[in-house]
Amino acid sequence: MTETGNLHVLHVDNHPGMVSLTAEMLEREDDRFTVTTATSASEGLDRFSNEKFDCVVSDYDMPGQNGLEFLDVVREEYPDLPFILFTGEGSEELASDAISAGVTDYVQKERGNDQYAMLANRIDNAVERARTNRECQRQLDAIETAREGISILDADGHFIYVNEAYADLYGYDPGQMCDEHWELIYPAEEVGFVHDEILPTVEQEGIWHGETTGLRADGSIFLEDHTVAATDRNELICTVQDITAQEDLHQKHQLVARASTDAFFDWNLRTDEVTRNEWYLTMFGYDSSAIETSADWWRERIHPDDRDRVLAAVDRAVENPATRYDETYRFEKKNGTYGTLRSRGYVVYDENNNPERLVGVHIDVTERKEHERKLEVRSAAMEASIDGMAILDADDEYVFVNQSHADIYGYEEPDAFLGETWQMCYGKDERDRLEAEILPELYENGSWRGEAVGTRKDGSTFPQELSLTVTDSGGLICVVRDITERKQQERERKQQNERLEKFADTVSHDLRNPLTVAQGRLDLARAECDSDYLDGVADAHERMATLIDDLLELTREGNRVNETESVTLAKIPTDCWQNVATADATLVTAVHQTIHADPNRLKQLLENLFRNAVEHGGTDVTVTVGGLNGKSGFYVADDGTGIPDAERATVFEAGYTTLDDGTGFGLNIVQEIAEAHGWDVQVTDSESGGARFEITGVKFVE
């Protein structure tokens, strides 16, 4: 802050009346505020030559430079200065652009003077956050330059921060460690110690201190002085120091040699006894007390459908020295289920060339067999997919192509691709782009998804959505979809949206700003004098504001919906009822289903239907929301005067109204929202003779 407790704000808006009113209202809201004004971005920049500011508040739509361009210039010189976009532009696209550009806050201009209290609060919060961030940055700089290693773990044990010293201790870069689990940097035996001793102590006492053995990226180990402390955010702060030089680490911590994870066996063919290593005991859940030395124990646990085949393979290996024993079969686990074993071995003969022992290894291939099964299922799914799917080997040649892939590129048979490279599907310019831009990113990240331009057999081109994934063997899995129709729809939709957005900008900026100033001046006039004429002015302002809001809702929202989610019809009508001036009207909710809908747009639909019922049915009307028997949908009905048959075809038209103060957009908005969801809306009579709106085609949550 420029002075202790004071806030100096620069407000930039090309509307002179708006900057004057905003400055006056902010200084009234908080006497700590001093507001300097400017009516263009260039004038605002000039203010910085002689004054220091704690925060900038700027409109978006200004000649010369808009608000985001002004932000870029300010950020070059003052990267940490809070910058709030205060604008009548309310589109999601602008909000997204503002956030991406790095505005501190985004505040949409509203009607009335209450908005200035909110704006003052946002300014105060932004300035306080900036001060706090500067202090946090100073603390972070101190941590970053500390000689001891410092890290922070989230509640699941993953690193969310490590300083350079911490990463250096373990042989990593800080970025490599973030999001990794702490078990990455400890030997297996030490992981158990952390789980059994350290973490329980921290949970009970809040802190643990002692010595642990760290594991570097290169596999070497070191002794560390280690402190672990819990925070009130359920995070752990760890500090470590390498103390290897202080003690003989080699004597204190001997790494236990890791035995093979395969199960070795030595079968004495004369005594029928088997010697096994410890992995044999644990591979399928058995302990030493449950395993007998006799080979019968093994024979009995081979799956009945596999037993004869496996034992016959043993006999062949014993009888013929040139035959190796190698069989895959199902073997019973301790819990009664079956895993899959691959057994490989050879026969050892005595000095008289008689078979003496069968020595070999059991390998647990349960996961591999399951993987193979999934591959078979996946292969069948790929064949049946409507998307083009292909697999290429490490030489970029096709080894599998489904029929859809061939159809997309204009070939009759998938075999036309086999042995060819992917270049056959693209023109020269697109091949060059793929090789220069896409393939390097693909092989660096392991996958890529985006759009490309394919070339059919006849030479015609088409836009495509392309997904590429690198396989373990260095090949590629390719999924392609023809998006010609979608691109055409996008172009048409973009043109339509541009026209609507241009209209909305005119309504928002050229009408709402003067209206906001007029409302503000009206409030100030009320403070100076008392006149019945002012009530009429206020009513006119409110009428204009409602008309602007309805126009903006139609043009900016129209028949669009965001992602749908589960919405309970038993609850949402009550929430909507609170947002409508209902006087003595009554709401009855007689539906309990849950539907798929955009909750915000569904609220707009219900609020407009409620408002229509109260305005046309009377202040004491009863409004009912209920389910449709035998239909997938719901209704909103009232006990008012109803809608004549002759008018039902026109009530949904934009601008149609029977009220002197109506806008004629409410039911048109209802229809737009319904169509955006894929629903249908119709008007009929309610049981009491009022109006009943039926919304059908609704998808219920099972």
From TrEMBL:
GO terms for molecular function: phosphorelay sensor kinase activity. Coiled coil: none annotated. It is an enzyme of class 2 (transferase). Residues 142-187 form the PAS domain. It catalyses: ATP + protein L-histidine = ADP + protein N-phospho-L-histidine. The keyword Kinase applies. Keywords: Kinase, Phosphoprotein, Transferase, Two-component regulatory system. Residues 325-377 form the PAC domain. Its EC number is 2.7.13.3. InterPro entries: CheY-like_superfamily, HATPase_C_sf, HATPase_dom, His_kinase_dom, HisK_dim/P_dom, HisK_dim/P_sf, PAC, PAS. Residues 506-696 form the Histidine kinase domain. SMART domains: HATPase_c, HisKA, PAC, PAS, REC. The keyword Transferase applies. The modification 4-aspartylphosphate is found at D59. Residues 8-124 form the Response regulatory domain. Pfam families: HATPase_c (PF02518), HisKA (PF00512), PAS_3 (PF08447), PAS_9 (PF13426), Response_reg (PF00072). NCBIfam families: sensory_box. This is histidine kinase. It comes from Haloarcula rubra.
